Amino acid sequence: MENTIKSVYTFYEKMIIENINLEDYGINNDVYLYDKIKTLYNIFKSEYGYMTKRVGELKAFEEWLMGLPSVLTVPFTYFDILNIATVHDIIKADATEDEEDKFLKDYYNKLAIAFFTLKEKL
């Protein structure tokens, strides 16, 4: 499974997949990926779906992620985000401050896009 995740999914899709935690909602984490994504989407809609009419679904999901939902605990500190991106060779270890800032600015938006890409793929 790990090799499949590494080869098939993007960095951002892996961040979504690897950080879903349904247990706080009383749901077993040992379910198919399709079910995890579907459940995550339903939780998002129940917690923050009201914002979709105002800002659109993608932006609402991005804002929800920035609020650090317990069901999806992606890295959120600048240090952790840059560290994991460096480990995965998404950003170079010797990146300039401007390159790091751009990466960090786009992080949550790209995570939101990755989520909806996963949702459509499955």
- Radius of gyration, in Å, reads 15 Å
Structural class: mainly alpha
Helix content: 55-70%
Number of domains: 1
Question: What count of helical segments does DSSP give?
Answer: 7
- For the termini, the CA-CA separation is 16 Å
Strand content: under 5%
Biggest sheet descriptor:
none
Unreliable residue runs: none
Please tally the β strands and state the result: 0
Q: What average pLDDT do the residues reach?
A: 93
How would you spell out the order of helices and strands?
A: HHHHHHH
The shape is globular
Structure description:
The longest helix is centred in the C-terminal third of the chain and has 25 residues, at 97-121. This protein has helices at residues 2-8, 11-18, 33-48, 52-55, 57-66, 78-87, 97-121. The protein has one domain (2-121). With 122 residues, it is an all-alpha fold. Helix 2 crosses helix 7 (97-121) and helix 5 (57-66) packs across helix 7 (97-121). The model has no long low-confidence stretch (mean pLDDT 93). It contains seven helices and no strands.
